[in-house]
Automatic annotation (TrEMBL):
The gene is tolQ. This is Tol-Pal system protein TolQ. It is a multi-pass membrane protein. The keyword Isomerase does not apply. It holds the Pfam family MotA_ExbB.
Length: 225
C-alpha cells in the first residue's frame, strides 16, 4: 500500500482511535461554533458602530432634544445602543422634572443612573458570546494536545508486538496523533484573533458611550439650571 495514502488526512482521521476521533470531532464542533460567532459578532459590531456614528451626527447637529427623544421612543427596536442610552437618560430626566421641580440635583442623578443602567444592559448584549471565543482560544490547544498524547501512547503501545521498530511502523500512529493538535490550533487561532479584535472594538464603543453619558449629563445640568 502506498505510504502517502496511509498518511492522507482522511486516512489519518479514519484510522485514529475512538477517543482521538472524539477529540477531533469536539474540536471541529467548537471551530464551527466559533466561526458562526465570529461572523455574527463582526456584523453586529459593524452595525453598532454605524448606528452610533449616525446618532452622534444627529445629536451634535444641534437638533431639538425632545425631537430626538420622541424618535428614539417611537422606534426603540430599530435604534442603536447609544440612542437607547440617550432615551433612558432623557426619559428619567423628564420624569424627574415633573416630580421634583425644585430638586435639579436629584433629577440629574436619576438621569445619570438611568443612563449607566442602560449602558450596562447594552454592553452585556454587545459582549455576548465573546467569552466563548476566549474559552475556545485557550482550551482548544490543550484538547488537541490530549488527543495527541493519547495517540502517541497508542502508537508506542503498538510497537510492543513488533520485532523491529522502524520509522514506517511508528510514523502512521504519530501522524494520526498530531492531527488532533493541528485541529486544535485550527480552532484556537481564529478564536484568539477574533476575540482580541472584537474586544478592542467593544472597548472603543464603551469609551464612546461613557463619553456621551458625561457630555449629555452636562447638557442636562445646564437645562436643569
Amino acid at each position: 500500500m502506498n505510504h502517502a495514502d496511509d498518511l492522507s488526512f482522511i486516512s489519518l482521521v479514519s484510522n485514529a482511535s475512538l477517543l482521538a476521533q472524539a477529540v477531533m470531532l469536539l474540536l471541529l464542533v467548537l471551530s464551527l461554533i466559533s466561526w458562526t460567532i465570529i461572523f455574527r459578532k463582526g456584523i453586529a459590531l459593524r452595525r453598532a458602530r454605524a448606528q452610533t456614528e449616525r446618532f452622534e451626527r444627529a445629536f451634535w447637529s444641534g437638533g431639538d432634544l425632545n425631537t430626538l427623544y420622541q424618535s428614539a421612543s417611537s422606534n426603540r427596536h430599530a435604534t442603536g445602543s447609544l440612542e437607547r442610552i440617550f432615551e433612558a437618560g432623557m426619559r428619567e430626566f423628564l420624569k424627574g422634572r415633573e416630580r421634583r421641580l425644585n430638586d435639579s440635583g436629584a433629577t440629574l442623578d436619576g438621569a445619570r443612573r438611568a443612563m449607566r443602567a442602560a449602558f450596562q444592559r447594552e454592553m452585556d448584549v454587545i459582549e455576548a458570546s465573546l467569552p466563548f471565543l476566549a474559552s475556545v482560544g485557550s482550551v482548544s490547544p490543550y484538547i488537541g494536545l490530549f488527543g495527541t498524547v493519547w495517540g502517541i501512547m497508542n502508537a508506542f503501545r503498538g510497537l510492543a508486538n513488533v520485532q523491529q521498530a522502524t520509522l514506517a511502523n511508528v510514523a502512521p500512529g504519530i501522524a494520526e496523533a498530531l492531527v488532533a493538535t493541528a485541529i486544535g490550533l485550527f480552532a484556537a487561532i481564529p478564536a484568539v484573533v477574533a476575540y482580541n479584535r472584537y474586544a478592542n472594538n467593544i472597548d472603543r464603543l464603551a469609551v464612546r458611550f461613557e463619553t456621551f453619558i458625561e457630555e449629555f449629563s452636562n447638557i442636562l445640568q445646564r437645562q436643569a439650571g
